Amino acid sequence: MIHMEIKVLRNVLEANDALASENRRLLREKEIYTINLIASPGAGKTTVLERTIDGLKGEFRIAVVEGDIAGSADAVRIGRHQVPVIQINTGGDCHLNANMVRSALGDLPLAEIDLLFIENVGNLVCPAGFDIGEEIKVVILSVAEGDDKPEKYPLIFEQSSAMVLNKLDLMGMVDFDMEKARSAARATNPELPIFELSARTGEGIEGWLEWLRTRVKTGRPTPRA
Amino acid sequence: MIHMEIKVLRNVLEANDALASENRRLLREKEIYTINLIASPGAGKTTVLERTIDGLKGEFRIAVVEGDIAGSADAVRIGRHQVPVIQINTGGDCHLNANMVRSALGDLPLAEIDLLFIENVGNLVCPAGFDIGEEIKVVILSVAEGDDKPEKYPLIFEQSSAMVLNKLDLMGMVDFDMEKARSAARATNPELPIFELSARTGEGIEGWLEWLRTRVKTGRPTPRA
């Protein structure tokens, strides 16, 4: 029984990885730089995305894939920023998989996109295990969540190419030790770039945008996943 | 292939449910009231638990099972409050299961416990699918996470017997519409008791403690799960 479970799980992951590689090949062929955004529920993924779109849409043609268990509230928010957006509902699954993303890519004008953000389901655990064909993963942590999160959920911090520390406007209102969070994240990923910002107020957003500009323009870094 | 996956998943869930029923039978036999605490990473589960222990430990003999992917920081925090605590590390799984809890119960002095809190892995999705033998589930949402969460993660709000709205001290600093959150939660669970409080400052904690007192003293409500 246990043996069969493990075998089926391996088959599922292998099938996912094969589809993820196909997605990545297609996205690179179309010269689209793709970012898989991962965070807990309520860390501010959509708000960070809205600020990022507003900051970069004059320079790059941006599109978004929204992943949620249910509903389309985030796609509606993103749609207001005049970029193409596709909503995926996983119907219960705690992460996007490569097959869901493949379907979404079929509905996007790939020839007219430079930068694609895929906002994963709100979860610090499951999305780390599933390659969806992205170029890089970026993890967002809010200061309201506490400085112990990189230690408690190490895999996603290890796999990410950058970390956004959001809700900087709440510092002082919450018990969050910035140095502790930074060193916990760097214990799993020593070179991790960290951007402290408030998507709500806009504070600190420019460093993050500048990093993104460079990544998108210089092309394809080795994915960490 | 797909057929086999579904069959294996069903077997896993059936095996889990059988073990969960055994856990529940044991816990009831020992007259232990067991609460499965579920929330996103950083919603404040451990801080709520610390306040709750301090508020009730003169009246009930309390114990705690801590569930985390990695580490034992939460068990150390709970241990400072002089109650028995067992740390489970799932090693990657995004939820506790009944078998993990069964092992932990073997290490607890069951004859000397009235009220057992099981703090699940930080996740609004996966723990909702796995009965671990609890009497009731309680979901904790922090106002920093946003008022749209009950709509986006409906299952856990549907299954919970109460909702704690934590970090009330941040109201006004975050965009959180209390009425919207309450009505979204009650759209999936019309009778859901909701406790607005700040575990950090202690504000509002008494209503939650009073509800717990009544539940523990009057015994065994029908589990919703």
Description of the structure:
Two copies of one chain form a homodimer. With 225 residues, chain A is an alpha/beta fold. In chain A, 40% of the residues lie in helices and 17% in strands. Chain A has eight helices and seven strands; from the N terminus they run H-E-H-E-H-E-H-E-E-H-H-E-H-E-H. Chain A has a seven-stranded parallel sheet, with helices on both faces. In chain A, helix 3 (73-79) links the parallel strand 2 (62-68) and strand 3. In chain A, helix 1 runs parallel beside helix 4 (98-106) and helix 2 packs across helix 8 (205-218). Chain A is globular. The first copy, chain A, starts with a helix and ends in a 7-residue tail after the last helix. Residues 221-225 of chain A have low confidence and may be disordered. The interface between A and B is large, with 44 and 43 residues.
Give the structure's gist in a few sentences:
2 copies of one chain form a homodimer. Chain A is α/β, with parallel strands linked by helices and 225 residues long.
Descriptive tags:
alpha/beta, homodimer, 225 residues, 40% helix, 7 strands, disordered C terminus, 7-stranded parallel sheet, globular
Low-confidence stretches of chain A: 221-225
Strand order of the largest sheet of chain A: 3-2-4-1-5-6-7
Q: Specify the helix fraction band of chain A.
A: 40-55%
* Multimeric status of the protein: homodimer
Tally of helical runs of chain A: 8
Shape of chain A: globular
SSE topology sketch:
Two copies of one chain form a homodimer.
Chain A: H1 2-29, E1 33-39, H2 45-56, E2 62-68, H3 73-79, E3 85-89, H4 98-106, E4 115-119, E5 136-142, H5 149-152, H6 154-159, E6 162-166, H7 178-188, E7 194-196, H8 205-218
Parallel strand pairs in A: 1-4, 1-5, 2-3, 2-4, 5-6, 6-7
Helix pairs in contact in A: 1-4, 2-8
